[in-house]
Amino acid sequence: MSVNIDVALTVRGLANEREWVGTTDLLVEVFEDERLENEVFVWMGETEDGLFVRAESDYPVIFSGFFRWSEAFEDRLTHRVTALVPHARVAFDWGYPDEE
Predict the structure, then answer these.
(1) C-alpha triplet 8, 27, 46: angle, nearest 5°
(2) pTM of the model
(3) Chain segment 40-88, per-residue pLDDT in tens
(4) Count of CB atoms situated within 10 Å of the CB of 26
(5) Distance CA 100, CA 26 (A)
(6) Counting beta carbons within 10 angstroms of the beta carbon of residue 10, is it exposed (0 to 12), middle (13 to 18) or buried (19 or more)?
(7) Under 8 Å between Cβ of 10 and 94
(8) Is residue 33 within 8 Å of 80, Cβ to Cβ?
(9) Distance between terminal CA atoms of the chain?
(10) Helix, strand or coil for residue 100?
């Protein structure tokens, strides 16, 4: 069964430009590996709380088997991010527009 998902995640707790750029490059690579590079855009930002990297889709992405895939994806991505930047925090914010 297919489902429409708004893809969104944020990596916070980045301390400097090296971590910022490295995390951005990592997320771009991950979404290429998942064949979502044309669906999900990765960008960098800064607030008073510090540097962050955000990935999100402009429109819902159609997934088949999302609920099986998403848990493994979250684990893999979190592991890769924290291997690069141990103090980084990854927050997933999946949206379910069909349920709204």
Answers:
(1) 70
(2) 0.90
(3) 999 999 988 889 999 999 999 999 989 889 999 999 999 999 999 999 9
(4) 19
(5) 32
(6) middle
(7) no
(8) no
(9) 18
(10) coil
